[in-house]
Amino acid sequence: KNNIKRVIFISSGGAIYDMDEKCPLKEDSKVNPKSTYGLQKLMIEKLLYLYNSFGGDTLIRRKDFWFYCGK
Length: 71
Description:
By secondary structure, the protein is of the alpha+beta class. It has two helices and two strands. It has helices spanning 13-16, 36-53, and strands spanning 7-12, 58-63. Strands 1-2 form a two-stranded parallel ribbon.
């Protein structure tokens, strides 16, 4: 109906990753959201991965929050 070709989602690395992990964090680092905001971001990512598996076109970017590292 709306002819949407691609979904782009800006996620939040600072809210999703386990901050007890060693720095620098990488995309495959352990995730462990500590807030409902982080949990929502992670759940949306998972839903978009599912959408992709059915032929959707998505792009997910996790913004860096390197200053959270080690807190």
